[in-house]
Amino acid sequence: MKRFLLILAILLVSVSAVTAQGSPEVEPVKKLTFWTFGSESPELHAVMTQFKNTFKAETGVEVEWKMIGWGDYHQSNLLVLSSHEGPDVTQMGTTTVAQQVLAGAFAEVSDLYASLGGDQAFFKPMLATISPQSVEGTYAIPWFADPRGLIYRKDILDTLGLAVPASWDELVSVSQAIQDAGIMEYPIGIPGSAMAHDLYQTIDQAGGVIASYDGSSTISMIDSPESTAGIRFLTDLVTSHKVASPATAEYDKATLRAKFANGEIAFYYDSPQAFTYMQENAPEIVDGVAVAPAPAGPSGKASVFCGGSHLAVYEYSDNKELASQWISFLLRPEHVALWSKVYGNVPALLSASDLEGFDQQPWNSFISIAEQHGHHPESGPGGTLAKVDTIISHTILGAYLQKQYSEELVGTAIQEGKLVHQRMIDQFQ
Amino acid sequence: MKYHRRLPYIFILPAFICMICIHLIPMSLGVLSSFFKLNIMTINNWIEAPFVGLKNYFSVFSPGFGFLENFVSSFSYTIVFVVLAQISCYVLGMGAAIVLNASTFRGKNLVRGLLLFPFILPGVVSITNWRYMFSYDTGMINAFLIKTNLIENLPVWLVGDNAFWAILTTFIWIAWPFWFIVLLASLQTISHEYFEAASIDGATLMQKFRHIIIPLTAPVTRMVILLTFMWYFREFKVPFVMMGLSPSPEANLLALHIYTESFRLWNFSQGAVMAVTLSMVLMLFLALRMYVTKKERSL
Amino acid sequence: MALHHSRKLKAVMGLCIAGYVLWVLIPAGNLVLTTFKLPREVMTGPYSYFPQSGWIMKNYSDIWNVIPLGKYLFNSLFISSATMFFSVILSVLAGYGISRFTFRGRKGFIGFVLLTQSFPGILFLMPYFLLYIQLESLTGLHLRGTYASLIITYTTFALPFCMMLMKSYFESIPVDIEEAAMIDGCSQFGAFLRIVLPAIRPAIATVGILGFLQAWNDVLFASVLTNEFTRTVAVGITDYASQFEVQWNYVLTAGVVISLPVVIFFVFLQKHIIQGLTAGAVKG
Questions:
Q1: Do B22 and C152 touch (CB under 8 A)?
Q2: Average pLDDT over chain C, rounded to whole?
Q3: Contact, B256 vs B73, CB < 8 A?
Q4: pLDDT band at A19 (very low <50, low <70, confident <90, very high)
Q5: CB-closest option in C137, C141, C228 to A22
Q6: Cα–Cα dist A230/A207, whole Å
Q7: Is residue C31 within 8 Å of B129, Cβ to Cβ?
Q8: Which chains have 3 or more CB–CB distances shorter than 8 Å to chain C?
Q9: CB contact under 8 A, B18 and C175
Q10: Domain region containing C151
Q11: Is A6 inside a domain boundary?
């Protein structure tokens, strides 16, 4: 027993020694923590530093800002959710807002939203995701929008005397014409290693939805005839039409940007950031590039997937009042415009859309196509695709290797995708 | 030797505390969490997550939920992966050890150091390098295939069936030097006289290999096989760095599968069930290893 | 060594050695040469082994802005060195304890140490995540994302192997030497310090190196237990490589930069590393 007590004593002493060292000090200055996601750049840093300084001068509050890579996005969210420790204010991607709200992460910001002008003040495609369908009230304030249009080589189409494709059939025939002219081997680029956005868009073009909410529960619609048609179309691009590369499943957005800049592909979907990239890496082609909505599928509906980011206040925050002040500050038109510009997206605040050159090409094209055709999947637990996009993109390759579209192969993949998707949805209900 | 009876405990105490805090407690919690409902909704307040008994085990091990199918597929690929990796590493390592042991030339130490290079290079670096080499239209391997005109349709390495071979090759490149250096050390303990006597008797190379090298390196080989089985079975780094969180089923080794299930799909309890199962398999192997060691000592 | 090889055999062995060297060097060359290519050449091909547009140093000057490598390197060096230090101290003490004394619970302790080897790291991941959080809310002790949490974790994970290695080294040193010293007036602890410790220097080097490499190379724990301030190089690169917009020239350049310390380490300590590996495998 004596021995045991000795061990216990040593344990206690060592633990308390470390604890004493680690206990937090009292902080005199009021602080607010703020997370954004993306890749850090000196320009972003300069803009945020300016914001922080101005805010401090106005309110005396110090903002601690952290930029986290998108690769860490889900894990950071999970961490905050489980530890109740994180920022007061965070940037939140449109597709994940609903899940976070359902899991109880965010505080309601309806009053703040109303004071900023409500629905009329913001870019229409962003309104769908400020709260989950099943929940009343507003939980996120739109910050900037990320419309993805069809980026295409207008110069090549002009030379060949072709118009920009407006339907799936035209997309295929125009691509084949480019192939026949010997200009490119595979004119269409699909980012198969992260193609959730392409799936949202293609399923919308086909007239389907990825999940549906009937007022009480949400069901995955990955296996609906419309979704199947969309997935089949993507598969066909690689297999029967051979206008997209068999290595599609390996590509990500960076690959496609580099390929487009290098003149290897003529069509792919991207946000305004594409133009920033081209100006830096391939200034010679910029003038021949234009943007259009994604061509219409069987539903006859052209589509522009319009994601983007909101600002949200964490439920666990002790500084909700300050958090609202900071969001109001960030949402001043000039601030929204400046940040969106440097970040490479378009402002989600209507009064900011004629600042910072957003009323000029190519930005205004993105804004106008998103206003007309902007689409976002349902705001609910099924808003993200879990692993479904990977299952599909791997199936596309499988179909290619079998040298034909295979009902059975794609059917199995869709069933598996639905199972995974529904399982994720069910966690929330 | 005389000593105070408390002395040995003082010596092992720091290690003991670490093992309790970092191994035993988390491990118990890991096993426990397989009996609770732990997902994105309950993680918010995990200490009060509902107890569900064997329900998680039931959902993982009965068909129809999608868990079992994925688990079985992942498990089978892992077994094949481990066995093929061990065979290849043994062949490569033994070959290099024999050649290097039997030859003398200037710079032999340099060559030996060079062959260890893949083992020294941080794993992440080797793996990203191989991932780039395997990429479809910018990688070295397909560029080589184009040059040689061997294959009409270029293979896609990182997705589908080939993904398995891609991770296996990468893994072997990283892992084989360990076998090489251990087998080399073991060969160096064999007296030259055996070989000389065999030569005088007119033994062929193959006979020397079968009757001298194999039996005399057998104990070491056996240990290495049992040891690396446990290491390789829980391999995480190669598929994770190469394929990220969305690997093809062919490259979805067990550890990565568990990681994805937990941290991407938030099925923490099901992840825990699979981790517990994996531990059971490894424990079985540990028992086998201890049995073999014991038997060898008593010989 | 038996040197009476025929010419033919010598030629075959030469070819074999050349084959092995190429098998190692070709991928390594790809790694190094890519870092001297233009980003566009790397991203779009066509592939060529040697840089086509001259030897570009731009990747090496840019990399520090693309990935905060300086910070990562410092974190890795600090965490790895501390792990090295603690795994040596802990395994020397424990190894000495279990090889020199017989005491109640010795067998149980050894069994426990061996048993821990069979638990996969993945089983511990979620519990760490939850425990560090819980510890924080209960005691205010901040562990997650700190150097301390990683150092403790790596040290403990290196322990079973290192401890067993130490045990076998201690067992190879005769007890008589110590007893002789104790007769000459040394305390047991004094004998340990003056006689035993110097004799096991090679084992200490080995254990230190294994601890260092364990911490330097790990991705699994670091991916969950670090935050952006304590991120290690291995995870830093993995994270960068798993983003939507990965640029191979930067990934590989960062790879070369983080490999340099380890390769230099190896060149100077080759003997100890090799000894460690072989001893560990055969005895562990």
A1: yes
A2: 83
A3: no
A4: very low
A5: C141
A6: 9
A7: yes
A8: A, B
A9: no
A10: 67-283
A11: no
A297 and A348 assigned to the same domain: no
CA distance C58 to C39: 9
Q: Which one-letter amino acid corresponds to residue A262?
A: N
Structure tokens at A4: 């045991």
Mean pLDDT, chain B, rounded, equals 87
**Choice among A21-35, A137-151, A187-201, A380-394 with the minimum mean pLDDT:** A21-35
- Total domains in the fold of chain C: 1
The total number of structural domains in chain A stands at 2
Domain identity same for A93 and A200: no
Tell me the pLDDT band of A330, cut-offs 50, 70 and 90.
very high
Residue whose structure tokens are 């510009």: A341
Kindly report the CATH number assigned to the domain that includes residue A71. 3.40.190.10
Phi, psi of A357 (to 5 degrees): 80, 15
Write b or e for each residue in B100-126: b if 16 or more Cβ atoms lie within 10 A of its Cβ, otherwise e: bbbbeeeeeeebbbbbbbbbbbbbbbb
Does residue C40 sit within a domain? no
Residue (of A343, A363, A342) closest to A353 by Cα position: A363
A297 and A200 inside one domain: yes
- Quote the CA–CA distance of A247 and A264 in Å, as a whole number: 14
Contact with chain C for residue B116, Cβ under 8 A: yes
Q: DSSP state, B156?
A: P
Is-contact A362 A368, C-beta < 8 A? no
> Model-level pTM?
0.87
C-alpha pair distances (Å), C139 with each of A24, A38, A86, C142: 11, 34, 18, 8
Provide the domain limits for residue B176: 53-298
**B240-283 pLDDT per residue, tens:** 888 877 788 889 999 999 998 888 888 889 999 999 999 998 88
ipTM attached to this prediction: 0.86
Tokens 């990283």, residue located: B174
How far is residue A402's CA from residue A408's CA, in Å, rounded to a whole number?
12
H-helix segments, A116-224: 154-160, 168-180, 196-205
Rounded CA separation B237/C208 (Å): 22
Tokens read off for A16:
């308390």
CB contact under 8 A, A386 and B264: yes
- Inter-chain touch C243–A83, beta carbons under 8 Å: no
Please check whether residues A242 and A103 belong to one and the same domain: no
What region does C266 belong to: left with phi over 0, alpha with psi -120 to 50, or beta? alpha
Question: Which of C81, C125, C116, C142 is closest to C225 using CA atoms?
Answer: C125
